[in-house]
Amino acid sequence: MFLASIPLRPAIRASLLFAAIAVATVAPMAAQNLPDAPGKAETVKVCSGCHEVTRATSLHLDRAGWQSEMEKMISLGAKGSPEDFESILNYLSKNYPAEEVPKVRINSARPIELDAGLTLRRSESAAIVAYRSKHGPFKSIEDLKNVPGIDYAHILAKKDRITFE
Question: Domains in the chain, please, with CATH?
Answer without folding.
Answer: 3-95 (no CATH), 104-163 (1.10.150.280)
